[in-house]
Structures are given as C-alpha cells and as structure tokens.
Automatic annotation (TrEMBL):
InterPro entries: 4Fe4S_Fe-S-bd, 4Fe4S_Fe_S_CS, FrhB_FdhB_C, Helical_ferredxn, MvhD/FlpD
Listed name of the protein: Hydrogenase iron-sulfur subunit
Pfam families: Fer4_8 (PF13183), FlpD (PF02662), FrhB_FdhB_C (PF04432)
Metal-binding recorded as keyword: yes
Residue ranges of coiled coil: none
Annotated ranges, domain 4Fe-4S ferredoxin-type: 419-448
GO molecular function, one term: oxidoreductase activity
Originating species: Candidatus Desulfovibrio intestinipullorum
Length: 488
C-alpha cells in the first residue's frame, strides 16, 4: 500500500521468527494492504532484542521502532518474551529522559495466524509515526549545557563524623586482621582534604584508617576483583571492607547476584554523616599550590589553602546522594559501631533528575548532545562502578560482537553511556561513583536515577537492600501488575 500521505518515513521492526514474522507473512499472503514504511529485521525471539538495537535505530535515522513477538505464554523458548516485556517496558519509559519521544517506540505481540492483526498493528503504528513526523536528528540539535542546583534538605542531620567511634572500629579490625587477607578502608591522600583507598594488611596499616566527609570512594569497587566468581579459586581471598550505608548496598547487590560469597567478606560499619561533593569543593578552592590544614567542627570544615581559609558547611557541600540518604549505617554489616540517626521525611527527586524533569524533550535531547560531546570515553565511570563487573569483556570495547565503534562522535558516546546505564537497570544502588569519577563532570548519574525511579514504580523494588531478593530484570511474572498491554 500506498505510502501514507504520500511520503515515506523509516520504521524499523524487529519481529520474532516464530510468531510475528509469520503473522506479517500471513498478511502478505492474504494480500492485506499495509504501509510501506517498515523495514523488517527477523530475530529468533523477542528476548534476543537488546535495548541498544532500538536506540541505535532511533539515533541512526529511524523515525520509529516496532518490536513484535509471540503472545505471552506462546514463546518458542518458553519465557523469552516475559523477560523482553520487562526490559522493553523499562526502555520505553527511559527514552524520554534522553529526549526521545517514547511514542516512537512500541512493542506488541502478534501470532503467526494473526495476519489481520498484523495489518492493523502496522497501520496504526505507521499512522502514529506519521503524526509525529520525522524524528529529531542529533546533527540538527543545538548543544545545551545546564547545571543542577545540588543542595537539598537532608533527611537526617549531616555532620563531619568526628564523634564516630573510630577507635573501637580500629580495635575490632586489629583483632580480626590476622584472619583476613586485607581490609579495605580510606586513608589521607596527597593532602588533608583528600582521601584515597587504604588496603590494610597489618595492625600498623589500621592506624592509618580515617573516617569523615572526605571518605568519598566506594570501597566495594575493589571487591569483585578480589573475591568475584572470575577469580581463580586458589586466589580468592577473605577480605574485610569498611562501609558507609551506601557502599554496603553495592555489596548486598553483589551477594544478590551471587557474584561473591558471603563467607569471603566481613563488613565493618560506622554511621555516615555525609560526604563532600569534591568537584564543588575543588571548584571553590580554585588553583592552589598546597593545603596547609583542615579544621573540623560539627557542621563542616575549614580548609586553609596557600594561607587562605575556605569554609565548607556539609549541608551546603554534600554529595547529592547524601541529602536523600535514608540508610547511613549498613544494616547487614558484621561489626557495627555507633547508631543510625533518625530519618525524617521522604526522599525528594535528586537534583540532576529534577533538572531534566523540568526540561522539554527537545531540551533534553540538546542537553545530552552537549554533555556527551564532552565525554572522553576514558571509561572512568565504568571502572569506578562497583557493579560493572564485566569490564574485561565490556561490549564498549569488544569487537565481537561489535556493538559500538571507537569513532569520535556524540552518537557513539551516547551509545556507550546508554549501554552502561541499561546494564545497571535494576542493579544500580546510586552510589554515584560513575559521576564522581567523571573527569569532565557529566551528570551521568541522572540516567541511573531515572532507571531506579522506573524500576521502583514498575516493580516496587530497590536494589541492594535484600541479599535474598532477585533483581527484577533477572526474573518475570506471567501476569505483570504494573505493565499493561498497550493496544495498537
Ligand atoms: Fe517468539 Fe520468544 S520465540 S517471542
């Protein structure tokens, strides 16, 4: 059939070989008239479709993407479409944060005998895309750079943690260190206003352990490399980790995914009173040749750099995640010192996400074009992520399969950041290490925050809270409570 309204748009359709492809064939054999905008790609099952296929199509010139598989309960591989349904629904709700209209993407189910239904699906989807018109192109978008206002009202009093029972913790670690290969914590870095990870193997090492608002790194980042399932059995160690509440969630998530064994890890915990956003502190300090001293009080610190004092109140300079933190003390730790403060109120929308929420689709599209153009593809975000556990085989670099190229353009950079975010869907605990590690300060945490929000709404799930729970994209329900079939 005739092209709708005399012009043809580009629609990519991924069809499951066993049902929908047969349905399209049935419609063809029956000579049912259909729009000609569709370019069909046959896949073995809807479960085979990586969400990247959809984004690639949409950013490479497609005006719409349609996915169709077997009806629920009819999948040739029994559950491929159930897994796909969860993944595709998350994707559909995620696209708007990138500035892509979610009506340009749809998924549905058509069986091999439903030639008539296929005709109706394809006609109504094509009609919808024609109403929307050609998709915006990255090349045409004007880059937009905006910064979020980071300060929020905290859910509990923030402080500098100087009254935390650090000596008790040190005594406990010393009593256990002979049974552990290493204990990970923090020590002073190149000056008193920065810390670096500390790997304690002796009692003298334990004396270097520090606690306070400069302990920004998530020590869970090192855990998988030491005791993960990819480590040869004879090299697996028994380790200890000193954790803040947010760090402990990364470890709980690793236990959930069976990446590590609880027998190989001991968690030590102190109540966290918040950590500094070091990017903002460094920006405020400006250029300096040396930090002379750091003085603490309950509300913040005074950093003297090159003889000039700078005051930083923790309530003004905390990391975005600290304002919304409702778990300052790790709940599943083996040795806990101190008590958790009372949490008052409910978390508000994180600042980066609130900024994007206030934008139009066009503005978001331009925003990510501007921000991703600055990405160096240094992979610091990936390397700092405690749950990016396949770094050695990362599809961002692999040539087999060759998902994304090393070409230096915004599109490839968006693909990388998008893959990184989607691989964390239902797993990310919002520790913020990706954004903190980014040397150019791209607010990539917003992508994870949006995924966490979607996962919470769809599956009523929060990652890293229960070591016995199954992450929602690793399971399915035959009848999904919050995913409704959209009719085409
Ligand atoms: Fe058709 Fe799985 S075989 S959706």
């Amino acid at each position: 059939m005739p092209v709708l309204e005399g012009k043809e748009l580009r629609i990519v359709a991924f069809l499951c070989n066993w049902c929908s492809y047969g349905g399209a064939d049935t419609a063809g054999v029956a000579r049912a008239t259909q729009p000609t905008d569709l370019r069909i790609i046959r896949v073995p099952c809807s479960g085979r479709i990586d969400p990247l296929f959809v984004l690639r199509a949409l950013l490479n010139g497609a005006d719409g993407v349609l996915i169709s598989g077997c009806h629920p309960n009819d999948c040739h591989y029994s559950a491929g479409n159930f897994y796909a349904r969860r993944r595709l629904e998350v994707l559909k709700q995620f696209l708007p944060i990138l500035g892509i209209d979610d009506r340009r993407f749809e998924y549905t189910w058509v069986s091999a005998s439903e030639g008539q239904r296929w005709q109706q699906v394809v006609t109504s989807f094509t009609q919808r895309i024609h109403e929307l018109g050609p998709a915006p192109r990255l090349e045409d978008a004007e880059p937009l750079l905006e910064m979020a206002d980071m300060a929020l009202k905290p859910l509990r009093p923030l402080g500098t943690g100087q009254k935390a029972p650090l000596d008790e913790l040190k005594a406990c670690i010393k009593s256990k260190i002979k049974d552990l290969d290493v204990v990970i914590g923090w020590q002073q870095g190149y000056d008193a206003a920065h810390t670096v990870p500390l790997f304690m193997r002796t009692e003298e090492d334990v004396d270097r352990l520090v606690w306070g608002p400069f302990n920004v790194n998530n020590p869970a980042t090192y855990v998988n490399e030491m005791i993960g399932k990819a480590v040869p059995l004879d090299k697996v160690k028994k380790i200890g980790v000193v954790v803040k509440g947010c760090d402990s969630r990364s470890i709980v998530e690793m236990l959930q995914e069976k990446l590590i064994d609880k027998d190989n890890i001991v968690l030590f915990a102190l109540p966290c009173e918040g950590t500094f956003d070091m990017a903002r502190i460094d920006r405020e300090l400006g250029r300096y040749s040396q930090i002379d001293k750091v003085e603490y009080d309950e509300a913040g610190v005074t950093i003297t750099a090159d003889g000039k004092p700078h005051r930083f109140c923790i309530t003004d300079y905390a990391q975005g995640k600290c304002y919304n933190c409702s778990m300052p003390l790790a709940k599943d730790a083996d040795d806990i010192f101190g008590t958790a403060p009372e949490i008052k109120g409910t978390p508000s929308t994180p600042p980066e996400l609130a900024m994007l929420d206030a934008m139009t689709l066009e503005q978001r599209f331009s925003f990510w074009k501007g921000e991703m153009d600055r990405c160096l593809r240094c992979y610091a975000c990936r390397n700092a992520c405690p749950l990016c556990v396949c770094k050695d085989y990362c599809i961002a670099e692999t040539r087999e399969p060759h998902f994304i190229s090393q070409e230096w353009n915004v599109r490839e950079k968006i693909y990388f950041q998008y893959i990184h975010a989607m691989h964390l869907a239902g797993r990310c605990t919002l520790c913020g290490e990706c954004q903190r590690a980014c040397p150019v300060g791209i607010p990539i945490l917003a992508l994870r925050q949006q995924l966490v929000r979607i996962i919470g709404q769809l599956f009523n799930y929060k990652s890293g809270m229960d070591s016995t729970a199954t992450p929602p994209l690793l399971c399915y329900k035959v009848e999904e409570t919050n995913i409704k079939q959209r009719e085409l």
